[in-house]
Every structure is written in C-alpha cells, then in structure tokens.
Design goal:
2 helices, mainly beta, five-stranded antiparallel sheet, about 260 residues, 3 domains
C-alpha cells in the first residue's frame, strides 16, 4: 500500500483493516514509531508532502511554530532537516559565477553521503559595501549562489537566481581591525523548474566571523604591496594569511610585507 493511502487509513482508524502496520506511520520514505503522547491526527499536508507535527514542529522537517532562522546553524533540503556538523567561512572563488566572494560552508553527513552546502556572495568591483541585503531584491552589483557538492542530496550542483527564487536576508557587521566581519544569514530557495530535480533549500546561521583578507589558492592576495611579484605569504583555508620567512604581518590589513 502506498504511504499516502496508509496514512489516510491510519487517520480514519482503519489501519488494521487496510493492512497498515498500526505501530508505524509512513511519511514519505520513512516511518516513525508511534508513541501514546503524540497526537498522530495532526497532519500538515504542505508542498513538501505530509509531515507529522510534534510539539509544534514537523517531524523530520523544518520548524512549524518557532521561526527557522536564528540560533545554531541549520539547513533543510527538500523540506527535511539535514545535520550540520560544522560551519566554515572565508573568501572563495564562486565556481558558478564571477570571482572571489564571501563564503559560508555548511558541512555534514546524511545517508546519501558527506555534503558541503556553500553559500557564496560576490560584490563586484566599485560596488559600495552594504550592511543589509534583501536576497529577494539584491542591489545592482551583487550576486549570490548556493553550491552543493552532493547532487544526490540537493538534486543539482548549484542554486542561483536563474533556476530558483531566492528570499531572506544577509546582515553584515565589520569586526576588528583587519578586514573581517560578522555575518548572519537567513535564506530560502524555491526552484523555478529550469533545473529538473533541484530541491528547495533553507540555510540559517547567526553571527559567524568571516575573514576577508585573501582567497585560498590565491597567495598573491597576501602581499600587502600588490605590485611585488614574489609571494610574501600563504592564504589559509579560513582566508587569513601566514607570512613567509622574512616577511612580517601588517596588523591593519592582515597581509604580509
């Protein structure tokens, strides 16, 4: 019996007669053990399919009561929460776009494999900095995208404005003497059908520190004087510079001379 029919039978009290297991309630590809304290009649038939609500939250999915954004780092793919084990930040070249930009990488693992979901934000040259961005209405000269290394999880390699409708906000606050800032992200994407199989994604992280000194693999950015051809330092994975022997770190720029 299909999960939808079995769920309907459970809700109508005809589970035994219809051949459904009375101890589990199928939802999508999963089934959840029944507990006496859970009211299994509270069913949300959202765009992501039927989801069982427990204490105001959709079982196996995103929050129904409290807002999704805020608190610890969170990610959902296709309406289902995925475990985030680590968040890393820095400057990175956007493979799906246009050059170095700020990067927030959500790392974790699912049954489909280990994933990295990478939010990237590029500000083109001569475009003024901003402290707040509306992702649904970006100012001219800004570009955002989300890259996913695990197509089996996300349904596609990247999410950007030409294949999805983006909404949410980015808030940026300068922090410290060297180029760095704290960033708060709240993003939702809805595929527009141009990339079949692509799934909606939601990302949230609050107050992470992003170093803005250099992009890994572009060690020339660690030269405090860009006219010098010899490399004065090495760009680390977190977008800070480690100076080579004989060079010194310039505190105000984070670069080497």
């Amino acid at each position: 019996m299909r999960a939808g029919a079995c769920l309907a039978a459970l809700l109508s009290g005809l589970a035994t007669a219809s051949g459904c297991d009375s101890r589990t309630t199928p939802v999508g590809d999963a089934s959840f053990e029944r507990h006496p304290e859970i009211d299994w009649r509270r069913v949300d038939r959202s765009a992501d399919g039927p989801m069982l609500r427990v204490d105001g939250r959709r079982e196996g999915g995103a929050a129904d009561g409290p807002p999704f954004c805020g608190g610890p780092p969170q990610a959902t793919v296709g309406g289902m929460a995925v475990p985030v084990s680590q968040v890393t930040t820095g400057i990175q070249v956007a493979a799906s776009c246009c050059g170095p930009g700020e990067s927030i990488r959500f790392h974790g693992g699912t049954a489909a494999g280990t994933f990295t979901i990478n939010f990237q934000m590029v500000r083109f040259p001569n475009v003024p900095a901003a402290t707040h961005l509306d992702l649904g209405n970006l100012p001219s000269g800004w570009f955002v995208s989300v890259e996913c290394n695990l197509t089996a999880l996300c349904g596609g390699p990247y999410i950007r404005p030409d294949n999805s409708t983006l909404s949410g906000t980015v808030d940026l606050t300068p922090a410290g003497a060297i180029p760095q800032e704290t960033l708060t992200l709240c993003l939702s994407s809805t595929p527009n059908g141009t990339m079949p199989g692509l799934k909606p994604i939601r990302l949230s992280v609050t107050g992470v520190l992003v170093h803005l000194v250099c992009a890994p693999g572009m060690d020339q950015m660690c030269n405090n004087d860009p006219s010098i051809s010899s490399l004065r330092g090495k760009c680390n994975d977190d977008s800070t510079c480690t100076c080579n022997p004989g060079a010194t770190l310039v505190p105000s720029t984070g670069k080497c001379q």
